[in-house]
Every structure is written in structure tokens, then in C-alpha cells.
Fold this protein.
Amino acid sequence: MPWLETKHNGAVTYSEDSVLTFPSGLPGFDKCRQFLFLHKPVAEPLIFMQSLDDHGLCFIVLPILVVDSNYVLQMTHEEMEEIGLQRAGQPQIGKDVFCGALICAGPGAAPTANLLAPIVVNLSNRIGIQVIQSASGYSHEEPLLREGVLCS
Amino acid sequence: MLIIRRKPGDRVLIAGNIEIEVLDARQNYVKLGIQAPESVVIVRQEAQVARESNIRAARTADSADILLLAAKLGR
């Protein structure tokens, strides 16, 4: 089994079929196309999104419905095509796709979640995209620990 | 801020070599056509926001900060 030195979790082994592929990379990290989701019981509900291309790159992700249980994902046809979704309507979070928010939690700053540009992964083929929801009105820095913001 | 009223089909010129044409205008959006030299970088403002936000997110936190956040979220 291949293994990988990670930013936060030491060396981990993984199976090839758990690798997530982002054909366009992420804005600002266009060359990073392959990631792993690493779950660690002590860090739940946070997920480590570890790059395979750059071992020093690891995003922290929260399932979007944890941040906002009413979150509405609106993808364009082009975005759905990029991750191989062929359904007519919008994809369902948790059924068709994983949808997660990237977390900013730098020292000395209140943690925030990027709801404007969620990470969306097609659950059937593990192909992903960062969807920029221009018309949504969602914030790229939604405060995380505000009273009443979290839903379980 | 300079404010100019334009109709579909109208254009504005910036610095003599960047041309912006209003292709369509509806109640909730306008469609713009932009012609500019290749060296001019044009991105949707949200794409720039996403890029900057990703770079901040990548700098996020050492492992201790992450575990602390997880503990607060779990409460």
C-alpha cells in the first residue's frame, strides 16, 4: 500500500481508490490535483484534506451541513460535468456529493468557514471541484463559533 | 468611483487598449465582453476572493490549534 508523509498526521498509508482528484486544482493551488481526506477521531468533525502533490499542504475541512444545516449548493452544468455528474437537477449533499467548507483557523484570529467556495466531491468517482457560488450571498469567512451557528 | 450609464451594445475603453462591451443586461445580471491584451489578468472578483481565502486556509493552524477547534466544535 502506498504511504505518504503528511503535514499533521505523520506517515499514513492509503489505498489508491481513496484518492480524490481535482482536475482543475484549487484557486491558488492549481497544480495540486490529488488529495486525501484523513479522519482522526480526536479532530472530529474536522477532516484533514491532505495534498499528495505537496506534503506540506493540508486544508482543514468541515462538512458544510455542520456549519449550516440549510446550506444550498447550486452548481452550473459545466461544474457538474467537470466532476462527472450527469443528473438533471442539483446534486444532493451526502447522497450524490460530499460538500465541505475550508476552514481558516490561524492563531489569534477567530475561526471562519468559506461558504462562498465549497469543496464538492462526486461520491461515485471521487472527482472534486471548488465551486464558487457567485450569486449565493454566502460569505467566504463565516464565523464558526458564533452562538447558534453550528448544527449537529 | 466613475459611474457610467451604458446600454447593451455600448462599450467603454480603458487605457486605450481594454474594451468592455455590455452584451446583455437583465434585471439580475449583465453580460460583459472584455477585450484586452494577453498580459492583462482578468478574473471574477469571487475567484480572487477564493484564491486569497485558500492561501489563508492553507497557512492555517498547527495541529494543536486544530484539536482545540475540534474540541470547541464538539461541545
